[in-house]
Each structure stands twice: as C-alpha cells, then as structure tokens.
Amino acid sequence: MQSENHKKTIYAAILGAGTVGTGVYKLCQEMKSEFVQKTGADLVVKKVLVRNASKKREGIEDAVLTDNWKEIIEDPEIDIVIEVMGGIEPAKTYIIEALEAGKQIVTANKDLLAEHGQEVMAAAEKAGADLEFEAAVAGAIPIIRPLKQSMAGNRISEVMGIVNGTTNYILTKMSEKGMDYAEALAQATELGYAEADPTADVEGYDAGRKMAIMASIAFNSRVTFPQVYTEGITKISADDIRYAKEFGYVIKLLGLARNTPEGIEVKVHPMLIDENHPLAGVKDAFNAVFVHADAMDDAMFMGRGAGQMPTASAVMGDVVDVMRNLVYNCCGRVGCSCYKQLPVKQIGETKSKFFLRIHAQDKPGVLANIASVLGNNGVSIAQVVQKSRKGGIAELVIITDEVQENNFNDAMTIFSGMSVVKEISGVIRVY
Amino acid sequence: MQSENHKKTIYAAILGAGTVGTGVYKLCQEMKSEFVQKTGADLVVKKVLVRNASKKREGIEDAVLTDNWKEIIEDPEIDIVIEVMGGIEPAKTYIIEALEAGKQIVTANKDLLAEHGQEVMAAAEKAGADLEFEAAVAGAIPIIRPLKQSMAGNRISEVMGIVNGTTNYILTKMSEKGMDYAEALAQATELGYAEADPTADVEGYDAGRKMAIMASIAFNSRVTFPQVYTEGITKISADDIRYAKEFGYVIKLLGLARNTPEGIEVKVHPMLIDENHPLAGVKDAFNAVFVHADAMDDAMFMGRGAGQMPTASAVMGDVVDVMRNLVYNCCGRVGCSCYKQLPVKQIGETKSKFFLRIHAQDKPGVLANIASVLGNNGVSIAQVVQKSRKGGIAELVIITDEVQENNFNDAMTIFSGMSVVKEISGVIRVY
C-alpha cells in the first residue's frame, strides 16, 4: 500500500564522480520527468562526494559537490546513497554508516561485495534497508534481479558467463585476426578496453569476483572471492586457438559456477566451448551469462558488461526500484538470499574435460606410454590427433573425458618427469 | 517495512489445471520450503479451478479441485489468484472480480493483455493491487521485469524478438535441412511444436500479441494487438532461404517495435537478418528478445518461450514477487507504466529495406525499365543480382535501400500491370 504521506521528493547522494558517477548524475537529470511518472516521486541529487570539491566536474553542478562525508551522512533528507567510487575502503565504511543512518544503498562495487558481502548485507538486514547492486555484475545486463526474483521458482544448477569484456575482446581478436596474446592486449589497451595494469582482467580476478556474487545468489549460499579458483588467459597461444577451431571449439575465459550434491564449484579459467554454443557467439567487449535451472531450462543474457552509460543504466534501474520501495514504505523487501550454508569445493575435487598438447619423442611405444600414464590415473582419452612430426618430435593433441582435476594433475606430474615427453602445452579445460 | 502482523501463510488459487496450471501446482509443492526462506511466508494452494471437479488430475490433490468460482472469489483467505486458463473469457471477468475482491493477480494470458490490457490494468490500479504477467511474453525469459524495472533509467528505442517458437522451429528446419514450408510444418506438428490449427503461430498473431505487450511497456504507451501489423511465414520458400543465405542473411519471423519521433511502429513479419546478428543464432523452439536503449546500448535475452515448466517458472517468479509485496504490505508498487499517449503508425508509413525476386522477360531494356519504376517511386537499389536466364525469362534478386512501405507498394502495383514482369516473389523485409 502506498503510504499516505509518501515522499514527493527523494534526495540522493552519489559517492564518486568518476566515469560511472558522472553517467549516473547525467541520467538523474535527463530522466527526471520519467522517474516522476514511474515512481510518483521526484529524484534530486543533493550531493556528489569527491576528493577535491573545488575541482570543476564536466556536467555536474558545482553546488552539489562536496568532499565532506558528514554533509551526506548527517543529512536526514538524503534517503539513497549511490556508491560508485569502487574499492574496499572507504566505500565499505561509508555504506555501513549510511545503512546505520537509515539510508538505502545502491552500489556498483563488485570488489566489496565479493569479499565483504556478508558484512554489508547483514548491516542492510539489520537496518531493514535496501542494498541493491545490479551494476556490480556484468554492467548493463539485468542478471541480479532475474536470479533473485524472476527465477525464484527454480533450483538453479549452473551459471556460466563471459563476464570480463577485456579478455573477451583479446580472445576475439586472437581468434578472428590470428593475433597472438601480446598483440591483442596491446590493441585492447590502445582502445581503452584494457587498463594500464591489466592484471585483474587478464588473470581472471575481475571475473572471479562477479562469479562469487552470482554463485551466492543463484545457489542461496555465500561464496567469497578467495573461494573462487582463477586462471587467466596469458598463456593462451595462437596455436591453441587454431587447434581448438579445428576441433570445432572456440576459447573463451569462462566463469563457471555449479551446484552439485557434494558442494558448490566456482571457477574462472579459459575454456573450449562448442562453436555452436550461444556463448561462443558473444564477441568483443560484450558480456553474457548463461543460466541452467530445473524449471526454466536454459536462458542467456547478453549485453554491455562495462562502460559509463551501460553501468549507469544498471545503477539507475536499482535507484528506481529503491524509490518505489521508499514510496511504498517497503525497503528491505528483497534482502540477502544466502539462507543456506553449502560447502565450496577445492578445484582439485572438481571434474573437467581437458584439451592438451604434448610434444614427445617420435619413436615406437611413446603413444602407448603416454596413454597408459593417463589411463593409470583415471584419465580416459576422448580424441587424440597427431598434428606434426619433425626433428624426431611428434606433437599430439588430446581431448580427455571428464576427470577429477587431482587425477589429471597427477598424470601431468608424471609426464613432467618422463624423458620422452618434451613439453606439455595448451592445457585448457573443455566444456 | 515488513508489517508486524504479516501473514505467515499466503493462500493462492490457480485458475486452470492444463499443462501450465499443473506445472505451477507442482512448483508450489516442490519449492515450498524455498519460498518460506525467500519470502518469510508459506505458500499454500487452496483451490484449483477446473471445468469438471470430479475428474482426477495427475499430480493435483482432489481436495483442492473446484468447479465453483465462488469458492475462490468469496474466500477472504485467498490472496493470490494465478490465472493460467487462457483465452479472453471467462479469464477477464474472473481477474476483474478478483481484483475488486482485494486479491492479487498473476497471469500468463497474452491474449487478454494484448487486447484488454488497459481495462485489467485500470482495475488493478483502482484496487491498489499487483497484476503481474511475466509468463505472458516469451515464456521463461525474464523480459517484463527487466523492461519495467532494470531498464527504468533508459529511453528504449527498439525491441526486436523471436517470440514464437513454432515458426522459429519451422524456419530453422527449412534453413538447416533444406525442407520446404509444408514439410517443416508437418514435422513441427508431429513433435508437438505446432498445434493442430497452427494459424495463430504461422500467421504471426501469437507473436503480434507479445509485441503489443512489450511495446506498451518499453515505450510507456498502450499498444493493442489490432494495432500490430502481422504477416506470417506461409509464403516463405526454400528458394528464399537459399538466396538469402547467399547474401549472408538468415530468415526469421521477427517482431519489431520502434519508438520514432513520428510514433510507435509495431510489426511482425519474416525478415532477413545478418547471419552474424545475435538473433540469427537463435534456433529451433528458442525465443529471444533484443533491446536497444540509449544508456545500456544493446542487450539480448534468450530462453525457452513455451513449455510446461518454463512457463511455470515465469509464473512462480511473479508469485514470489507478489508474496514479498504481501509480506511488506506494498502491493501495487509496480503498476501500469503506460503514462504516455503516443500515436501508432500504419504499416504503410513505416520504412523498410526489401529483398525481392522478379521473373521478367529476358530482353534488352527490361532491367532499365524495372529500375526506373523503382526509382520513380523513391525506391533505390542496394544490390541486384541476375540469378538465372532460361526460356526467355531472367530471374533478378534485388535488395533495396530503406524506403517508405507505401512507396514500395506503389512500385509493386505498377510491376503487376507490366507485361514484361512475369512474377514477383519472395518479397521479404531486411533488417
């Protein structure tokens, strides 16, 4: 029921006036009359928190800039705090203080949620407040709301995603143009898709944080970033991509979260997926999330995973939702959904298929030798192709059946001690 | 704020025990404990309305079956009415009576919403009640909630979708197996993808109803089914598909809704789309909706558009949402979003590119003649290829630039009166 004395004007503060903050401010101005129609209330940005309030900001009125957090936290008129500053601190402190002061939160902060989600969600729960974070995962793509609400009638068993645009851009260029990793990274950097220090992207940390958040929601059980196995794309070669293509696969950096009877698996690593899988067609800087659940079967969500306005779009969807809750006096109606406590598996306990390339001495009995090492460790071979023979060295490409990772690693350890095996390369999992 | 005296048990009634109704009942039982965790309340299906209450229903307790609407409408304990009987009447009367009796509605009824949406939404608004209908469009795919909520910070300019699984299955088989229309339809019927009378699917009516609903929400202005131009797939030939492929296109039955400065365009017709467009890869009975908006840019949502459990999944997402609203006493918080009154264009006023095949006399001057008729009517040619010459007849395949449909039709009328033009076939729009 709409409260009789509901607020006609809702005041918000934006923390951070970087790319995303400026985009959010812009949408608050441009969509003003639409928001009134959609929610019955007028949205006014009263303050924008910045480090240096005397510095001019393109597109933001000087009067709203402040470098004093107290002007926000102590202002009882401000109902919504939009945190788009990023990083753990001071964002975490600000969010918790704002919740304690009775304010609602919209945040785009994946680092914070993937590591301290429990603490901030508990603070929101205690305050009976909204804490919404659609923008923290996969930019503009609506995925948090679908997972929490639209799919509430399902048991979700798998969430798989291309949730890092930088690495998807690099792999797309390697695949389409035959570039090697360094060249594709250089191009991504030049175009602004990769940061000066690309570590968080190319090593899979950024994707891992998003997977921790999605797994927590999909399986109703907390997964934190340190529990996510991550492996990046820096070792993927043009050869790997070419060979994969010959087998009908493309290579993507995939986040994979599964709910199994023995526990939750969450990992990020390069993976060969069938060229006909919907995720295989997701190119350049686009993101996509593929979900399998018992009732709805398969669904996929694709869109812009980053960028000023796409991220601001996701933030504003949440802001409008919070405005509706304020108007109807029902903040906190969709709270933390981690009501189970499921174990999270170690990577070695999970199962995968593997693609690998082995350079070995080209003499009788070597293939039998390699096959028996695999067999003795429980690794069965699905496909094997001899790619080349030169200078007494044969190159074998092997795709295994599904195997427990510990067993596979044992076989790799034995290979590394065998004189006939010259090199193991391109060890990539297969979906 | 959660109401202190919030209901610990929420009673629902399901109208209809067909395929979807049985699926909904099943999820209500199977997910019982999850719903308590998600909403804080227990969901109990108290009644299932059927025509013949003495007939046994597999999976539904006899005790809840009733053929008496009064047992539902007059039961003050029942808070949620889940309408999955389909058709305009008596569904419409039941929904309006239920709203007047203070109940919340979840419905999967696209026919009703596409034709009488305004009336039922007004009744919900008057009652301050929820009326949710995610399952009415594109089955399990979350699209109503994303359009209404997640994208609230955007101005949406285009919604394009493959929203009918039957026709997508038929076109996929025609494209992949070279089947003609009749053969592919026969296979779809045999597999249960097409109904005994496939008219609503193959003529685009089903897709047209879904597009009316999506356009209304996306553009915040009511569009009803009679305002949607529909054209089916019955005239698509194996030749059309083969030629389209040669030009790098696939043929899909697309729903297309655009918000232009001159008004809203909503149409359903076969269309050539680039083979690299994400919608081109949506195969068999899958549905997908592609949305373009100013802030988020492009997004696509793909999944099962029909079927018992996928549809039940969408219904239950809404039921859980309504349960949360009941617990927090905030029903009606997301109401009708048609707060504008935009004109809807006639099909002749819209612009399209066209693909067409012309069989004409193979003699000097005929191409010039054809080209000048097009030119005189404002139709410019983007591509033209002469496909064959035999028996004094040449086959031309033409792709035009974008042209107002009225102008294009004028040219076609002139062709039909020209003795050198023997046949015009395969007139299909191009995205």
Automatic annotation (TrEMBL), chains A, B:
Any one Pfam family match given in the protein's UniProt record, by short name: ACT
Keyword NADP applies: yes
Catalytic reaction equation(s): L-homoserine + NADP(+) = L-aspartate 4-semialdehyde + NADPH + H(+)
The entry's keywords: Amino-acid biosynthesis, Methionine biosynthesis, NADP, Oxidoreductase, Threonine biosynthesis
Obligatory cofactor(s): a metal cation
PANTHER family tied to this protein: HOMOSERINE DEHYDROGENASE (PTHR43331:SF1)
Protein known as: Homoserine dehydrogenase
